[in-house]
Amino acid sequence: MKIVPFDKGHAEDALCLVNLLRAAPITLSEFIAREARWPVDDLRLCWLRYEDDRAVAYGQIASSPYAPADHLAVQIAVDPDYRGCGRGRSMFDLLEREAIGRGFRGLVSTLPEAASHPQAWAEARGFHRHALHSDSLLDLQTFDGKAEVSAEVSLTDMTGANEMQWREVATLLQKLIADAPDMRDLPPWTMARCLTVLRETPAARPEWVIVARSHGSPVGLTVGHSMGNEIYSYFTGVLPDWRGKHVGLALKLRLIAAARAQGITTMRTTNLDTNMPALRLNASIGFRRVPGSLELRKTLYSGAAATPVKPQ
Ligand SMILES: CC(C)(COP(=O)(O)OP(=O)(O)OC[C@H]1O[C@@H](n2cnc3c(N)ncnc32)[C@H](O)[C@@H]1OP(=O)(O)O)[C@@H](O)C(=O)NCCC(=O)NCCS
């Protein structure tokens, strides 16, 4: 048995295990492309456990925009043929020691809402339930095409936008994201991250970034990402003074129309299950709830292990 830090040469082995954690598997070329896009300044440590030249467990700790600054997001996958014999536990022990050794105060794990066994496994390791992120789907084929609502704003997408316009919208996203209940206790987003979400990630589409303006000033936006055959309604936000005036609804309806125009049949979205304004807005459009994900957190105590381990 050996545990080795992950590097490019292990991509194929890692992919088989990483795909166990994904709702939809990705290909090797997509995996390699994602590896290349990982921001160089973001901390990420990954290991693979080999037994008789077979990769049987994968573990990763990484900083994440969805984790507090002093927490790391953790992922562990064990080959189904090798489960139930302590491989997951020993990988977790390694990740935990590494996180503590680097001065982190906690870990975040995000698991499918319906995955009761992994949840029980994590809870037995000291994680507690922190938040439920519910997913909702809208069938764009049967959507009744609700008439566009009249909100006292103009709506435009970002097709053909220049650098100054992208920066203006990124500034609005930065402000709105900071105000979303999902982001409470999370670090503020940098302009670079906002521009990545709006424009640079391969999932972004300028025609799916829709901005609401009043007398030229942006007051709200919605962002859709391409996710296979679906559109993922990534974020919708409206400045506080403009809430409750159907701006959010108008933005979402325009995004739905833009997606339908491209033949997309399903819109997916995720909301914190306590974010009532967002949930009610989606319910009013006709989204139906499907299983989402559970976020668990664990507080780390430096007494548990103080020195980083050196995997052989
Ligand atoms: C969620 C959000 C975008 C809604 O935008 P909005 O412009 O205020 O919403 P609308 O005025 O278009 O509301 C449309 C419908 O949604 C529901 N709704 C929206 N806000 C609501 C609230 N605070 N309480 C109850 N229902 C609400 C209502 O059904 C409403 O229709 P009605 O007024 O005819 O009853 C806005 O609250 C916001 O920016 N929140 C912070 C960012 C955020 O959390 N985004 C979601 C994460 S992706």
UniProtKB/TrEMBL annotation:
The keyword Ribonucleoprotein does not apply. Gene3D superfamilies: 3.40.630.30. Keywords: Acyltransferase, Transferase. The keyword Transferase applies. One of its GO terms (molecular function) is acyltransferase activity, transferring groups other than amino-acyl groups. Signal peptide: none annotated. Transmembrane segments: none annotated. Residues 1-156, 164-301 form the N-acetyltransferase domain. Pfam families: Acetyltransf_1, Acetyltransf_6. InterPro entries: Acyl_CoA_acyltransferase, Bact_Acetyltransf, BioF2-like_GNAT_dom, GNAT_dom. It comes from the Bacteria. PANTHER family: AMINOALKYLPHOSPHONATE N-ACETYLTRANSFERASE-RELATED-RELATED. This is N-acetyltransferase domain-containing protein. It comes from Mesorhizobium hungaricum. The lineage of its organism: Bacteria, Pseudomonadati, Pseudomonadota, Alphaproteobacteria, Hyphomicrobiales.
